[in-house]
């Protein structure tokens, strides 16, 4: 079982790798880190609101199919919080991706909040809110 702070940081490394797989068209690593039981929510960059663990996992699988590859995908954590049962990170996700229907690579700079809870001793993603970062 993960210890609160140190293992959450190593979990976040796995989370970032799952995100990179996602923007390369592979949803399976993210599915392995995502909640299997509700409540779970997804507030996507296009303004959608998905509720329920099965619905969120289905939306993630569908979303990954739109990506054709990424030349960049980085998380920039602004702050992280963790206790024995809940954890979160808030920050930026910066990606350059190839997408279905696009002729050129698309930059994605997102503001991200993710919340996790323990399920069977493992950290699981229960909420993601990502929306476009306004250019400065």
List the helices and strands and how they pair.
Elements lengths: L3 H19 L5 H6 L7 E3 L5 E3 L1 H12 L2 E16 L3 E14 L6 E14 L2 E11 L4
Parallel strand pairs: 1-6
Antiparallel strand pairs: 1-2, 3-4, 4-5, 5-6
Q: How would you briefly describe this protein structure?
A:
This protein has 136 residues and is an alpha+beta fold. The chain has one domain (4-132): Nuclear Transport Factor 2, Chain: A (Roll), CATH 3.10.450.50.
Give keywords.
136 residues, alpha+beta, Nuclear Transport Factor 2, Chain: A, 3 helices, 27% helix, 45% strand
Commentary on this structure:
With 136 residues, this protein is an alpha+beta fold. The protein has three helices and six strands, in the order H-H-E-E-H-E-E-E-E. Strand 1 and strand 2 form a beta hairpin. The protein is globular, with a radius of gyration of 14 Å. It starts with a helix and ends with a strand. The model has no long low-confidence stretch (mean pLDDT 94).
Number of strands: 6
- Mean pLDDT comes to 94
* Largest β sheet strand count, sense and barrel closure: 6 strands, mixed
The helix/strand series, from N terminus to C terminus, equals HHEEHEEEE
As a percent range, the share of helical residues equals 25-40%
- Label the CATH architecture: Roll
Low-confidence stretches: none
CATH topology: Nuclear Transport Factor 2, Chain: A
